[in-house]
What we know:
By secondary structure, this protein is of the alpha+beta class. It has one domain. Helices cover 39% and strands 16% of the residues. The chain has four helices and three strands; from the N terminus they run αααβββα. A hairpin with a 2-residue loop joins β2 (93-100) and β3 (103-109). α2 packs across α3 (62-69).
Amino acid sequence: MAKITAKTSVLISLLLISLVGCNSLPKDKDPEVMYDLASRLKHLATAVDGLVKFGGGDKLSKDELLLAAVKNEPSKLQFLEGYTTKVNIEGNNTAILICRNETAVVEDAGCTAASDVQHWQASQPAACSFTLTLAQICQ
């Protein structure tokens, strides 16, 4: 029977730690998770934008606006759990920003067809504040 030495045990432990570390991305850096989040946010941002432009959404609180955008089905907002969600209304244009720990993750204007800003891909973390100028991109 082979005897495992302390040196072998340490090497095996280091190998296992490195394998686990290589295969586990933080949730906010996992592309599959982030692209799904951005896609869901795009649909929500479009609905919010429509409510503000055509449905009196500008008179609602942020929470009421988000709930109205999903037709009062709170389960459709579960993807936002664990994130800070901000809504920006400029005139009749809107944007939604999702952050975690005061760091911007994804930002989307409701007036555009594509997902707008993938902050999670930036080399340096961005502060949890809006970067889109709605008057320019929503012409």
